[in-house]
């Protein structure tokens, strides 16, 4: 029995070192990174690479669990190239959002957390840019597209923290349609680097 209690105590003491911050503490984390986005249901599309930036706040609820929420500007959409009547076209769907990720973070070892949550997003810009190259030259045109004003996704990922710097990689799995017409949904991979300021 004593051996079991000793082992349990050792396990609990090791668990308590998983989180980088004290239980009950709160921190703010400005972050910036790369967004690699695409749209489902569109065959042959290439990802649109853009910027993701914003701030997240994190509350350390226990030795291994924290809760975070943030506001992130995210450049999303997709790119597509095709040829028609010997003319080459490049089409870029530009969908920019203000995303609000609400995450549960479970620290599986010191500094390393598994993340899962929900994320409403609010469309702030939506357009399609068409570029064409012909023998006579090239040109481009941009027009608005009817994107839905609200988007919902499930973010899941991993983060690693060292000396208050945090590297975060997450995938945002789109649940709702991105446009008023059609079935395409957002599919976004993001990598960010942030710094935590304890409050």
Task: Give an overview of the whole structure.
This protein has 199 residues and is mainly beta. It has one domain: Porin (Beta Barrel). Helix content is 7%, strand content 70%. Strand 2 (46-60) and strand 3 form a beta hairpin. The radius of gyration is 21 Å and the shape is elongated. It starts with a helix and ends with a strand. The model is unreliable at 7-16 (pLDDT under 50).
Distance between the termini: 42 Å
Summarize the main sheet.
11 strands, antiparallel
Level-2 CATH architecture? Beta Barrel
Rounded mean pLDDT score: 87
Number of domains: 1
Return the structural class: mainly beta
CATH-assigned fold name: Porin
Task: Identify the notable features of this structure and list them briefly.
199 residues; mainly beta; Porin; eleven-stranded antiparallel sheet
Quick structural overview:
The protein has 199 residues and is mostly beta strands.
């Amino acid at each position: 029995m004593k051996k079991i209690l000793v082992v349990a105590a050792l396990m609990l003491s090791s668990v308590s070192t998983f989180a980088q911050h004290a239980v009950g503490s709160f921190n703010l984390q400005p972050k910036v990174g790369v967004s690699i986005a695409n749209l489902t249901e569109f065959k042959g599309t290439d990802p649109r690479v853009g910027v993701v930036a914003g701030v997240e706040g994190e509350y350390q609820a226990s030795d291994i669990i924290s809760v975070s929420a943030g506001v992130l500007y995210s450049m999303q959409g997709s790119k597509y190239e095709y040829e028609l009547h010997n003319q080459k076209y490049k089409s870029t769907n530009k969908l920019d959002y203000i995303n609000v990720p609400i995450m549960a973070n479970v620290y599986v070892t010191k500094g390393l957390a598994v993340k899962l949550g929900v994320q409403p997003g609010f469309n702030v810009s939506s357009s399609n840019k068409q570029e064409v190259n012909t023998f006579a030259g090239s040109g481009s045109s941009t027009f608005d597209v009817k994107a839905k004003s609200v988007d919902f996704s499930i973010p899941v990922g991993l983060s690693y923290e060292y000396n208050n710097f945090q590297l975060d990689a997450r995938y945002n799995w789109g649940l709702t349609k991105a446009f008023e017409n059609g079935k395409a949904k957002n599919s976004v991979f993001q990598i960010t680097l942030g710094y935590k300021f304890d409050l």
